[in-house]
Amino acid sequence: MRSLGRLSTTIPLVLSTILIPLTVALAFWWTPEDFDQGLSQKIFYFHVPIALTSYVAFAFGAFSAAMYLWKRTEVWDLRSYVGVHAGTIWGTLVLLTGPIWAKASWGVWWNWGDRQINVFLILFLYYCAYFMLRFSLDEGERRRSASAVFALLGVGLIPLSFLAVRIAQTLIHPVVFTSGGAAMPNSFLLTFVVGFAGMLSLMVLLISTEMRGKRTAARVLQLQRVARGEDA
Amino acid sequence: MIPAALAIARVKFVLELRRREVIFAMLLFIAATIVIVHFALSGDTGAGSRAAAGMLWAAVVFTAVLGLLRTFAAEQEEGALDALLLAPIDRAAIWIGAALAQFGFLVVVEIVAVPVWWVLFFQAGGPSIGTVVVALLLANIGIALVGTLAAALALGARTRDVLLPVLVLPLVIPIVLAGVTATYGAFGEEVGGLRPLGFLALYDLVFVVLAWGTSEHLLGD
Fold first, then answer.
1. Number of folded domains that form chain A
2. B75 pLDDT more than 80
3. Cβ-based neighbour number of residue A13 at 10 Å
4. Any chain A CB within 8 A of the CB of B126?
5. What is the pTM of this model?
């Protein structure tokens, strides 16, 4: 079990150390410059994988929340918290890289007509509130189930926000993927996939490291209690 | 379960009739919000303007949050919540009852506020108010639902009153988006016909299902 725990950090550590620099190299030296957007398009290989990874982390958080409500074991509560936490950190990066790209290609820092970034903003605000809820409840069963229910409700909020923004606004965002497949050259696609894999492994690394930290902290607390003779 | 929910909603209405704690405050609050938004936009809220539509929805949402702060307050103060949880009724009945009461409060407030908004910002010959009324009713259901959910989650939190708006507001952003779009539609703008109303109904449905599924975990043990 312990070796498995170590593997769950070693593998993503190795992968992200290789893949993320590789993405930088591919983006700048291999892919041709975008005809329309020029150099600024390079941020696509980072911004979009970060955004997708952030959704993956929120999905992991919500899935673990559902598992917690089903199984009632503390580890699922921790996983749910760590997932939402990682998603929020990645979300901050999305909200930082998005405006850079927007400024370069549309000339504004924030485009309120853009669907993806607005949905993301709603989701980000929602999951930031998760931490307020979690940390204003006392530790225990009540806090775990309230956090889980809140994390789970986000699953309903994402598609609804997409629909609402779509109903309310015009479509301006460049559509990179269409139903007919990715509308870009193969070198763009490959670099994007490498970037996505790199970001995903970094996310896995972050989640498993934080899980290990949380478990160690819990174990230390327990040992301290034993040392004080409070319980065995 | 339905009789239990109705009974809980009735208790809340009777309490409100006796104490007059919530609705009167909501009325003053919605009036003040409309005035503030009007002055904040320094007169851009002309008859039939988008700002006038937005003002209504912002005011409704903030007023709803104010009302939500008192959901479950009476139960908590008098320790009735424990009794309710022990009672042989479905857990879902507790929040459905609270949501019904919240819906009712909102409707009462809007019955007064919306005609005033209408007269102030449209004068005669305004757009079709039917769409606005339907949109508000559908939105009230959604706001009452997610608001009561959030209030139940925040029960027992140390910073409950600060927490609740932070939990509720991101959840109701889609309602505001669709509600405002429906109101533009009522002004005669071409914005997707009945789709905003359909969306509001879908929103209600999604959160009814989600709330139902999680209701046994909502109110604690």
1. 1
2. no
3. 16
4. no
5. 0.86
Nearest CA in chain A to B217: A145
Could you tell me the residue range of the domain that residue A148 belongs to?
Answer: 42-173+182-219
The complex scores an ipTM of 0.86
Residue A231 maps to a domain: no
State how far residue B195 is from chain A, nearest Cα, in angstroms.
7
B218 — contact with chain A (CB < 8 Å)?
A: yes
Position B102 pLDDT exceeds 50: yes
Closest chain B residue to the Cα of A161, Cα to Cα: B174
Structural domain for B158, as ranges:
2-217
User: Does A227 touch chain B if contact means CB atoms closer than 8 Å?
Assistant: no
Tens-place pLDDT, residues B10-47: 888 888 888 888 899 999 999 999 888 888 887 666 66
* Closest Cα in chain B to A144: B217
